[in-house]
């Protein structure tokens, strides 16, 4: 007897076991399907590969069980939608998802949604939906017209800059907060300040710089990112941000997270957490992996079904070596920036067990930590630091 029959007969279904700790799950409802063909794509749609959208039955089972599996003390449960290009799933798909979230949300628990898009398919209807339901929107944009069109063409080889800007303008018209996600590689290493100025001129107030992932199409297309260039790029952004007096006005995630981690001793992201493995990924057919950048047989958790509790998948991911050992490498133990680096992303660790961006992180974090070290790593220290910074920039 299947789940639909059980529901029809109103036979009680066994309660979903709760996870011992909160976990997140990044959902790819359309898989690798995308209307762009970025040269360095880490999750490319292969030629001739047909995309298949997550079906309604799986969507409902996933939402119900994902909510039920969170710890009882959870007061907010976040859904993260990504791709490929997740808007290709269609607006009806997300309307159904939102209705199901409300159907299964426990009293007193807030449901939130985040969605990462290239912005080219946005229209007024999408924006009304996102505004109504307070979506957190990330838009992938790599720079000005020259940079964007060179590295993020559409499927026909045309540029994507104009369409992305139209999408950003729509978000601004509907007063939807968004952040820009920017991929950094050797080809833009000397453009950091100009890129930063361009994003600010567009009206962006939340920026996130993502180091190139050496997976998917990037290696064959000749893309790379050296540790020296990563450090040089981020230092240039930091100096431009400070020089323009943008503290409290423009929020660069890479900078803000260092401040937060220094004073709270907790990382806001898995990349620089002492342990990782709490951010799972689900493909549209229900395949589960322990990390978005480690989608391979070694990090495959199994297929979403009614037999294995979500809590078991979350526990299995957290127990994997990639997340357990990330901050235990020998070179990390005596490093002066370990408190905010914690070894970086395991996907950047090579066969030699060395993070290929290590020296870049060291240079960037050292510069950010220098003015912070005078303050205690505590809420009181954060208050003292904020008062000092506000006084110097006021």
TrEMBL record:
Recorded hits in InterPro entries, A to Z, give: 4Fe4S-binding_SPASM_dom, Aldolase_TIM, rSAM, rSAM_sf, Sulphatase_maturase_rSAM
Could you tell me which residue ranges the Radical SAM core domain spans? 19-256
Q: Does the keyword Transcription apply?
A: no
Keywords, sorted A to Z: Iron, Iron-sulfur, Metal-binding, S-adenosyl-L-methionine
Q: Which cofactor does it need?
A: [4Fe-4S] cluster
Q: Which domain of life is it from?
A: Bacteria
Pfam families attached to this UniProt entry: Radical_SAM
Q: Which SUPFAM superfamilies match?
A: Radical SAM enzymes
Which PANTHER family did the record assign? ANAEROBIC SULFATASE-MATURATING ENZYME HOMOLOG ASLB-RELATED
UniProt similarity note: Belongs to the radical SAM superfamily. Anaerobic sulfatase-maturating enzyme family.
What is the recorded name of this protein? Anaerobic sulfatase maturase
Traced from the root, the source organism's taxonomic lineage reads: Bacteria, Pseudomonadati, Pseudomonadota, Gammaproteobacteria, Enterobacterales
């Amino acid at each position: 007897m299947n789940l639909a029959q059980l529901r029809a007969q109103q036979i009680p279904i066994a309660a979903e076991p709760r996870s011992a700790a909160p976990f997140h799950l990044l959902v790819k409802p359309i898989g690798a399907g995308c209307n762009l063909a970025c040269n360095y794509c880490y999750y490319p749609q292969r030629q001739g590969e047909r995309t298949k959208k997550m079906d309604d039955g799986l969507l409902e089972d996933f939402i119900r069980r994902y909510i039920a599996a969170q710890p009882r003390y959870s007061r907010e449960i976040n859904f993260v939608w990504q791709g490929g290009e997740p808007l290709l799933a269609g607006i009806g798909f997300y309307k159904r998802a939102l209705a199901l979230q409300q159907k299964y949300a426990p009293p007193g628990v807030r449901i939130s949604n985040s969605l990462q898009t290239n912005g080219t398919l946005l229209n007024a209807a999408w924006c009304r939906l996102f505004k109504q339901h307070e979506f957190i929107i990330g838009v992938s944009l790599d720079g000005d017209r020259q940079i964007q069109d060179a590295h993020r063409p559409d499927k026909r080889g045309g540029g994507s800059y104009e369409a992305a800007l139209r999408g950003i303008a729509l978000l601004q018209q509907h007063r939807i907060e968004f952040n820009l996600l920017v991929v950094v590689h050797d080809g833009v290493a000397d453009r950091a300040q100009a890129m930063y100025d361009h994003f600010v001129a567009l009206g962006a107030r939340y920026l996130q710089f993502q180091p190139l992932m050496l997976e998917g199409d990037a290696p064959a297309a000749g893309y790379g990112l050296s540790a020296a260039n990563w450090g040089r790029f981020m230092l240039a952004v930091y100096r431009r941000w400070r020089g323009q007096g943008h503290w409290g006005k423009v929020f660069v995630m890479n900078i803000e997270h260092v401040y937060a981690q220094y004073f709270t001793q907790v990382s806001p992201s898995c990349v620089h957490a002492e342990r990782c493995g709490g951010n799972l990924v689900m493909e549209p057919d229900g395949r589960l992996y322990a990390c978005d950048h480690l989608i391979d047989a070694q990090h495959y958790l199994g297929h979403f079904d009614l037999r294995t509790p979500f809590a078991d998948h979350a526990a299995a991911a957290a127990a994997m070596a990639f997340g357990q050992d990330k901050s235990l490498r020998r070179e990390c133990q005596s490093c002066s920036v370990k408190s905010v680096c914690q070894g970086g992303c395991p996907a950047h660790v090579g066969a030699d067990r060395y993070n290929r961006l290590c020296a870049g992180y060291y240079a960037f974090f050292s510069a950010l930590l220098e003015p912070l070290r005078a303050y205690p790593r505590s809420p009181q220290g954060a208050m003292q630091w904020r008062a000092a910074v506000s006084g110097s920039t006021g």
